[in-house]
């Protein structure tokens, strides 16, 4: 990284201001334009905009810049959807017509696959989220302060990590979330409870995490604090229970976290009221969701995504399915009623315990789940899979685990990806190992952001 660059007779430096016409969008959500002979990447900018930006980084002939002002808006942009948009960093594309968002995501994925040399496959486009608004079943709100120093509870301000924007409304969640947020903020302000300042590492209140099951209406509220002071939460419990909600509060939790990072981490958990889980339903099956277990944040979108994966897997009758990076076992459990056997592997012990419990919960006796690194556990399994489903973290699978999967020689591999960059790289490795990408389809699980899920069907090539 350089603070300045001289190229082709043009001198550029960090902090310099540019006016750029955005002509394309690349993953992860960079608007692309050109200035002289430099390629300019601006986070959140979209095709058709003219943007005033400040250079942040220069690497070779590529400039990364921060938007300062939208000088000219794209023709398809819209306004007035949310009063917090622009200040809140939660949404990137809320100002865009939803159909345009889908086009951008579809094109981002196709360009990454093209760049990896993945060709001659059926691209099936992108499915829209069943809900464009109020689709999230989980939100992590942060306690902080605004520019005036007042206590806030909401999302980090865009470009200002140490400021938190109060959310009077949020189009990503239903009204129950905002009612709970406002109740928690009022309680904290009335009791003069200090927020945790990540710069000084002092304070008490860190996060408020709300999870809601769409099918059952069950709600879990989790207040996250440091151990720097003691607090009687009886007033908070009563206030939360007294809110008139569409859903039902089934648990109120207190999580202790003294880690320095801003992530929600559980060092100790206390149940203040009720129980420490909610029950959700997907495709006719029930899943127990604990406060820190992974579950897709778009319930109806998850049903569409898993239907897509099940379709790509084909007929599972009398077949053995490996569910790799299985988390709480959701995909494997959904496939288990048709399969002969499901074997799941997951690194996190807590998630594996949840997967085992979810299998019992649905009276499925053909599921076995192992704890450990996927690449290592695969070397110790004797069963041969007919179908392998992989749903890895954003970092992807990688050559070592792919090599171990290929050694089993499964006829079909279904790759469910939350990061099309690592998906493209991994698909290249699979094809080099004698497999062929047959079809790819995208699922929009996160409207108004640049994130997109992608499912690929990979088949073994027989000479």
UniProtKB/TrEMBL annotation:
S-adenosyl-L-methionine binds at residues 296, 325, 346, 391. This is 23S rRNA (Uracil-5-)-methyltransferase RumA. InterPro entries: MeTrfase_TrmA_AS (IPR030390), MeTrfase_TrmA_CS (IPR030391), NA-bd_OB-fold (IPR012340), SAM-dependent_MTases_sf (IPR029063), TRAM_dom (IPR002792), U5_MeTrfase_fam (IPR010280). Keywords: Methyltransferase, S-adenosyl-L-methionine, Transferase. Residues 11-69 form the TRAM domain. It comes from Caldanaerobius fijiensis DSM 17918. The keyword Methyltransferase applies. Belongs to the class I-like SAM-binding methyltransferase superfamily. RNA M5U methyltransferase family. Coiled coil: none annotated. The active site is at 418 (nucleophile), 418. GO terms for molecular function: rRNA (uridine-C5-)-methyltransferase activity. The keyword Coiled coil does not apply. GO terms for biological process: rRNA base methylation. Transmembrane segments: none annotated. Pfam families: tRNA_U5-meth_tr.
